[in-house]
Amino acid sequence: xxxxxxxxxxxxxxxxxxxxxxxxxxxxxxxxxxxxxxxxxxxxxxxxxxxxxxxxxxxxxxxxxxxxxxxxxxxxxxxxxxxxxxxxxxxxxxxxxxxxxxxxxxxxxxxxxxxxxxxxxxxxxxxxxxxxxxxxxxxxxxxxxxxxxxxxxxxxxxxxxxxxxxxxxxxxxxxxxxxxxxxxxxxxxxx
Length: 191
Ligand code: GDP
Prior knowledge:
One of its GO terms (molecular function) is GTPase activity. By secondary structure, the chain is an alpha/beta fold. It has helices spanning 36-45, 90-94, 109-125, 149-158, 174-184, and strands at 21-29, 61-66, 72-78, 97-105, 131-137, 162-165. A six-stranded mixed beta sheet has the order 2-3-1-4-5-6, sandwiched between helices. Strand 2 (61-66) and strand 3 form a beta hairpin. The chain is globular, with a radius of gyration of 16 Å. The site of guanosine-5'-diphosphate (GDP) has 16 residues, from helix 1.
């Protein structure tokens, strides 16, 4: 069972974790162009704006959601912003991450292969109890689909990940993605 000190659950109040109000670092991984920034902007701002990029560097966007059981989860969302090329940075990027979201584009088998690479990286560098989601984005482009839903399901199952197909463009399954992640977070036990 969870001891209450789950990796990545960063307390605001100097040590004690408030199990009702979780704050978690979420890292995004995936090939450039799969829609990571668009997913974040859809979730945080409710917009689809392909021209606007999530801030590069040491900052992140955050968004809080409320769950049915009256707990809240504040996501601090880190976008790689292309830094995935600098392998030396990876351990820093993953450090303290409670959640990793690996994104591919359902029209791009290359991006799916790359997603599998990132899953391996996470297994190497991520915290052992990190919650991992596999996201097949651009589900609105179904007529150009080249990665089947079953391929996504199989990959996720093999790696103990949560799987969902989304569209940042139509907003399909974007909120669901974050809600499902929130439900899967290790809950600190109120000691
Ligand atoms: P990133 O490099 O992974 O952050 O990708 P971006 O968020 O910058 O998106 C790359 C391109 O894909 C942009 O031109 C977006 O308009 C497009 N895009 C992102 N999400 C979707 C989606 O769900 N559906 C469609 N059709 N296009 C998308």
